[in-house]
Amino acid sequence: MAKKPLGKDKFGVQKVMRTGDYFADSLGQFALNSIAGLIGQLTYFYTDKVGMAAGAVATAFFLTKIIDAFTDIIMGNIVDHTKPGKEKYRPWLLRMALPAMLVIIALFTVPSGISGAGKLAYMFFTNIVLTAIIYTAICIPYSSFMVVRTNSQEERGIMGTWRAAAGYVSGMIIAIGIIPITNALGGDQTAWAKFGIGFALMTGLAILLCWKRARETAVERGKEVEAVAETNEEEPTPFKEAITNLFHNKYWVIVLAVCFMTNVSYGISGASGAYYCKWIYGNDNLTGILGAVGMIPTIIGFALIGPMVKKFGVTKTLKVSFLIGAISTALRLIAPANFVYNTVLGAFGTFANIPMMCLTGVLTAMSIDYNEYKYGKRMVATSQAASSFGSKIGTGIGASVIGWCLALASYDGFAEVLTPAVRQAIFTFSIYIPLALFIVMFILTNMFDLEGKLPALKEQIELRKKAS
């Protein structure tokens, strides 16, 4: 039986996506967040399971992210210069599925019989291959799907919500399960390797399913209904000119800055929980409880994001969420060692992060539309790559901040007593820095006034196209 034709969104743009399309598309984010989530736990794995020095691990992570971020720019340039008539984005998912699985497994198989320098070199190499090559070759093309798959801002918003939900599911599995499961398996390096194998298989399957259903043009019932494909065929912009244009687009710069700080926060939260539970609460198995409790505000957040965006709009929704995050994090300073008190406030902090997870792609898509208004070209992949550059630097700094703080406090992963210096280091990267980030992101979001202007700008773009 033929499927019922889809209608148009509130701006009169034809809808082209069904539930199966949203689900398959979201699996790409599941895979990416699986990789990012596992990497977020590696600081604890390397220091407390492999026995590597915290400062060395932090510095190595930072260097990998610097290299990783520059490969994003290279990848964006490669994608934007794909020959006309060929698929730009979709093939990369198929190419990277098997390598992703193999290298995820390799992360946790650090040879035990080699020196400390050898372990550091192995860690550096495997992380470079996974993040700078494989993750980048998936992330940049996948991020571009949101722009070329549909012209509807409504559908882009729904795509963002589905992606955030799928990504959060993988993140929650890691947050809730990795410590209790690995401890149940023996708590040693072998136990972590077994967990890694399971996630490697899930990641590869998710990438392949996303590839199978992905499209590079707006398609409904097998027919192109919107000229999205035309955006793929624009004349490539020279790399230097593209980057210069982007930094003269203030909205793209704001998105870049907010993405950077959001990912610093994600990088910290992904790796800090195990240290906080182990040393402040006295039991690292509590990370599972924190993750489970975090599911409550996550579900509420995903349920409310649609109504919030509909009532307040994208930008105002982010303002509200960042304000909630700042207030709840500040209140943690009153009793930072109380498990129940901090768990409740942490739930509000988790809720505050949900809108940005859902709406980052929408903000980026808006800034890409502004590129077309200002320069006559969208520069889709380069815009996504440059944004990802800032995001990866942010994630690298977030993960590295933990190691650097611990190194300054002379942290010993095998110590039996918590020192005052280590306590303050844990409070610094768990409370003080996230509080500052929420405040700055709230200020920057107040400067993003493109949302209300965009419909009029799109009309001008269409008039310009007709005139030419």
CATH class group: Mainly Alpha
Order of helices and strands: HHHHHHHEEHHHHHHHHH
Oligomer: single chain
Q: Please tell me what the overall shape is.
A: globular
How many individual helices? 16
Largest sheet: 2 strands, antiparallel
Structural class by helix and strand composition: mainly alpha
DSSP, total strands: 2
Label the CATH architecture.
Up-down Bundle
Count of distinct structural domains: 1
Q: What value does the Rg take, in angstroms?
A: 22 Å
The separation of the N and C termini measures: 43 Å
The mean pLDDT is: 85
At the third CATH level, what is the topology name? Growth Hormone, Chain: A
Q: Assign a percent range to the helix content.
A: over 70%
Neighbour order of strands in the largest sheet: 1-2
Task: Indicate the topology.
Blueprint lengths: L18 H22 L1 H7 L5 H27 L10 H17 L8 H34 L3 H32 L4 H25 L5 E2 L2 E2 L4 H4 L6 H9 L2 H32 L4 H27 L1 H18 L7 H37 L4 H29 L11 H26 L4 H18 L1
Antiparallel strand pairs: 1-2
Brief account:
This protein is mainly alpha-helical and 468 residues long. 78% of the residues lie in helices and 1% in strands. It has a two-stranded antiparallel ribbon.
Would you kindly provide a written description of the structure presented here, covering whatever features stand out?
With 468 residues, the protein is mainly alpha-helical. It has one domain (19-217, 226-467): MFS general substrate transporter like domains (Growth Hormone, Chain: A). The chain has helices at 19-40, 42-48, 54-80, 91-107, 116-149, 153-184, 189-213, 229-232, 239-247, 250-281, 286-312, 314-331, 339-375, 380-408, 420-445, 450-467, and strands spanning 219-220, 223-224. It has a two-stranded antiparallel ribbon. A hairpin with a 2-residue loop joins strand 1 (219-220) and strand 2. The longest helix has 37 residues, at 339-375. It is globular and about 75 Å long.
